[in-house]
Amino acid sequence: MSFHRRAVLPLLLAAATVLSLPLPAQAQSAYFFPQATDAAAFDAAIPSPEQFLGYPIGSRYTRHDQLVAYFQELAKHSDRIRVQEIGRSYEGRPLLIATVTAADNQARLDRIRQQHATLVDPAQPRSAAGDSPVVVWLGYSVHGNETSSGEAAMLTAYYLVANRSAETQQWLRQSVVLFDPAQNPDGRDRAANWHNAWASDPASSDPADKEHVEPFPQGRTNHYFTDLNRDWLALTQQDSRPKVDVFHQWYPNVQIDFHEMGKDSTYYFEPSPKSMHSPLIPPASYAFNKTLAKYHAQSLDALGSLYYTGENFDNFSPVYGSTYPDFHGAVGVTVEQASSRGHVQESVNGLLTFPFTIRNQVATGLGTVRGAVTERSGLFDLQKDFFQSALKQAAQQPVKSFVFGDAHDPALTRRLLELLLLHRIEVHALDRAVTVDGQRFDAGSAYVVPVQQAQFRLVHSIFAETPPIKGDVFYGSTSYAIAPAYGVAFAGSRSRIDGGTRVTALPTVQGAVNGGQAGFAYAIDWRDYNAGRALAALQFKGLAARAAFKPFSSSTGQGHVDFAAGSLIIPVAGQPLQGAALLEAVTAAAREAGVQVHALSSGRSSDGIDLGSDGVKALRKPAVALVMGEGVAATEIGSAWFLLDQQLHLPASKLDPQQLGRIPLDRYTTIVLSGGTYTGIDAAAVAALKRWVQAGGSLVTYGSASKWAVEQKLAEGESLGKEEDAADADRRAFGDQRDIAAIERVSGNILSADVDTTHPLAFGVPRRQLAVNKENSVTLQPSANPFSTVVRIDATPRVNGYLSERNRARVAGSAWLLVSPQGQGNVVLFADDPAHRKYWHGTDRLLINAIFFGNLVNPAKARG
Fold first, then answer.
1. Are 241 and 324 in contact (CB under 8 A)?
2. CA distance readout (Å), 426 to 122, 231, 461, 491
3. Helix (H/G/I), strand (E/B), else coil: 517
């Protein structure tokens, strides 16, 4: 750690002067680029950010459209930069990649890229990379309200494009610098509009001033409140996928992710603590963090800025923008600047100004380019050795192949296949039936992933259990495995399974009605994850649908077909459309959802219940309200919003918590309360919720909202599980308290649980064993009603990730999902977010069931 407090305080005050005075452009350049002492060092034909925007950088928050326009302006004036739009955010804002390198390199960019790509091919010699430039990725504004980031992107790009020094020209000849100037444009503009709207002149440094206190949901996350810094592996968002595609075109050698932290901190850069390193990654990869850190230290030392390294932030799994590159032979680095969260704010280090925070980020970015160019040869060796060692490490693994797929759930099978292809993982179609760990996988509906491949470490991260860890201080979750979260059948084979043709593209989705116009009804198997989307589409058209609460079999034009519990029946009789018009509507829903619909000519089943049975129940059209506002966990309720919007295409009303006691609730069939703090909901709102539930409403809660619902007697008769043990009274070392607290934290674990697959909330779940995510300390007692505990964590749960023995004992045997009947309605209690981070499809289908079957899950009604 380096301390320069005497130097920092004058600089903070100097930044305040820059903030308050409209200085000439060269004065701003002197502040942000103190190393460029000659005013003629910059090409006058290239406009600086201040000249283009019309205000000094750091005097206001630059909107995303202005940032985009500036990068495009640079491209108009210089042959050193190329700007490419790679996609759009959910709110329609452009996603950019700007490529900065020497003009000669720009002219042969494709050849450079192909030459550089030989580094990730274990079969190619190191010499194949030749004299290709080192590749540097600078990623900004993944968290939209980390204010210095996007401003620093403009200044750093300007310096590389406009600076005339011999050093800069050398950097550009020997490097390709990729700028992602705003990974999260929707969140960035949310924050920009807030900070600009509440800015004062002169600026207020009071931390309690509105400028510094963003309201829900703040600008950290994207449109659907997704933390995009945790989406690099799951790739659930359209904001994430284009940049990962570009990443795999270039495979950078160094990748910096620019962040901010609390105002009273200083500046952080890696290396991270050794205890937070993944055993999958070669030690040489982490060692190179120390090499690069020298250049970051030099840059900040030159400014006299405080910084520290090696104390926090993990490098454990490939979910972050600074760890995904580590899993591809690069040096990934998180940098964190203390945030002014506005123009100026009081801190323990004095007045922390916006320009000061920006300047540190600029210095680190330029220091990164300097370091990458200087260490080019070592970085190339590192990347080549990384992929060659992946094959050696894979050969030592007991599991030789992973196989996945489910003939009854083509939607999730396809979705997992898509994820693997996005990560450039080698996949083969299964060409013969195999049985692994008692699970049968059939040709035509399953795929094989060989462990022995260059992307072994990413394969392991997606399919395998977390490598052994010590349980030291972790910044984030300790398990991010995707395959268990998807809920699709998969298994690891200790013998190599030779698949058939390598899959390089997704098979075409072919939703259709099999059998033509139905004489009696149309049926859709509920095991297909996309069946819910088809149901929403049919109900939107005004068609009546029913669900079979027990399995049945029917003879169709395609032969004998088995349908699982929950399968949909769209009878011909009683519909607003008939004949060809009904067939057309059902066909459109099938195609849109990508599901197979079977035409049935008779209500008599060949096995199981007949279609006129009391066990085939009419479904109501859901009307869902999502409660979101101050106190609500934005990322959790955002996952529910995303599920309804993007998976079901089912519109939902978004209500502020304070509205619950002020508006009629009877228009809603389902109200969802995610985790959060609900102390602001008054007694009148609680009473209104109770009346609504008693009258037939279905209240869905999870995490701390479930705890609140039990405490408020909304779920009367239910009780919470074991509380966290009180702190040990034994004397402890003061310096150990942070580590002890972290070790006992519930930190994102995958646990094994038992599910009642006959319960309507579990329809479509293929097996009694279900993986669930445990992210918080809330536990629920199994319901006193023997029919109402839907999912229960195993008495001796299998744990993927780190969970202390004390926490294992607390969660063992607890309920993860239960139904609490209340009058004509119910409260559906989840212990954790079932749609966690938008990729937990194995459990988000439980939430889908709660939405569609919520009025049919009370034990007395289920017996009906």
1. no
2. 14, 21, 14, 17
3. coil
340: tokens are 């002014």
Kindly provide the b/e burial profile for residues 733-750, where b requires at least 16 CB atoms within 10 angstroms of the residue's own CB. Answer: eeeeeeeeebbbbbbbbb
581-611 residues labelled b (16+ CB within 10 A) or e (exposed): ebbebbbbbbbbbbbbbbbbeebebeebbeb
3-state SS class at 332: strand
Sign of CA dihedral 322, 323, 327, 330: positive
Tokens coding 730: 């034994």
Beta-carbon contacts of residue 260 (< 8 Å; ≥ 6 apart): 143, 146, 147, 148, 149, 336, 337, 338, 339, 341, 357
Work out the end-to-end distance of the chain between its first and last CA atoms, rounded to an integer number of angstroms: 69
573 exposure class (CB count in 10 Å sphere: 0-12, 13-18, 19+)? exposed
Burial of 717 (0-12, 13-18, 19+ CB in 10 A): middle
User: Which pair of tokens denotes residue 267?
Assistant: 């500046």
Residue linked to tokens 């040709």: 443
Tokens representing residue 576 in the block: 């607003």
- Residue 816 near residue 753, CB atoms below 8 Å: yes
Over the chain (864 residues), the average pLDDT of each successive run of 10 is: 38 46 64 82 96 96 98 98 98 98 98 98 96 97 96 98 96 98 98 96 96 96 97 98 98 98 96 82 94 97 95 82 97 96 96 98 98 98 98 97 97 98 98 96 97 98 81 59 96 94 93 96 98 98 98 89 97 97 98 97 96 97 98 97 98 96 96 95 96 98 97 95 63 64 68 97 96 94 95 93 86 97 97 97 98 91 46
Can you give the C-alpha Rg of the chain in angstroms?
A: 28
Alpha-carbon distance 134 to 173, whole Å?
10
The DSSP result for 799-834, as a single string, is: EES---HHHHHHHTT-EEEEEEEETTEEEEEESS-T
pTM attached to this predicted model: 0.94
